[in-house]
Amino acid sequence: MRRPLRGALVAVVIVGVWWVLTELHLWSAYVLPTPGRVWTSTVTMTMSGELPEHIVISFGRVLTGFGVAFALAFALGVVALLLPGLDGFLAPVLSFLKNVPPLALIPLLILWFGIDETAKIIVIVLTAFFPMYMSIKKGLLACSPQLLEVGTSLHFSTAQQFFLIRLPHAVPDILVGMRISLGFAWRALVGAEMIAAASGLGYLILDAQRMSRSDKVIVGIVTIGLVGILCDRLFTGAVRRTMRWGIDDSWS
């Protein structure tokens, strides 16, 4: 059985178990709404434009945060390669931030940046940054000595060694870090949109919780998961179509 069919089968089983539990009335509809009620809410929110609007806004935030995180991660990865002395000063700060949950910084971010988009983007950046940074740094620093010797024998400059040897060698690690961080960015979305948001999927979930609409909460959760899977599939497909080395056995 192919993977999409296996995934569909698992989804059918989960919905079936969910339907049976609701039919047995083990929990009230307030706690566990029926699949039919959730589906009705999904259709209503989609037809009214509410759900697509939240998806577009959240996607924009994730894309912006992911892009900024990649730029910072790549820049600091290059610093670690070319300026190891400076990296020695940055490493303790980055190690500290890596172990601080971004959600713990929300009160400070609100005080410093207010409740506009900046604070939300920073939460996503802090969540997505470290997997990319560690992968980029590892890929650039772990280049084969034999390849570097070839570059030296060909009298490559530092720039030529970087662009013709180190960077191509690091591409598989960079892409893996990007894929992991893309998922982390979506996982940070609800936390980011806790910062006085008035739109987005995280706001949809929190607002539904305040209104005791568990069906809309489930709609928001499922939507985040499905959009995240779609982004991962698109990213993976683009990588498999454009890259020809280091990804065949692990990118699926």
Task: Give a quick precis of the structure.
Helices cover 79% and strands 0% of the residues.
How are the SSEs placed, and which strands pair?
Elements: H1 3-23, H2 35-48, H3 50-82, H4 84-98, H5 106-113, H6 117-141, H7 145-153, H8 158-187, H9 189-192, H10 201-210, H11 214-242
Helix pairs in contact: 2-11, 3-4, 3-6, 3-8, 3-10, 5-6, 6-8, 7-8, 8-11, 10-11
Helix-and-strand structural type: mainly alpha
Low-confidence stretches: none
In CATH, the topology is named MetI-like fold
User: In percent terms, what proportion of residues is strand?
Assistant: under 5%
Tally of distinct domains = 1
Whole-number mean pLDDT:
89
Assembly classification: single chain
Shape: elongated
Question: Fraction of residues in helices?
Answer: over 70%
C-alpha-based Rg, rounded: 22 Å
CATH class: Mainly Alpha
Total E-strand runs: 0
CATH homology superfamily: MetI-like
Q: Summarize the main sheet.
A: none
Distance between the termini: 16 Å
Under the CATH scheme, the architecture is Orthogonal Bundle
Spell the H/E element sequence: HHHHHHHHHHH
- Our count of helices gives 11
What do you see in this structure?
With 252 residues, the chain is mainly alpha-helical. The chain has one domain: Orthogonal Bundle (MetI-like fold), CATH 1.10.3720. It has 11 helices and no strands. It has helices at residues 3-23, 35-48, 50-82, 84-98, 106-113, 117-141, 145-153, 158-187, 189-192, 201-210, 214-242. Helix 7 runs antiparallel to helix 8 and helix 10 runs antiparallel to helix 11 (214-242). The longest helix has 33 residues, at 50-82. The model has no long low-confidence stretch (mean pLDDT 89).
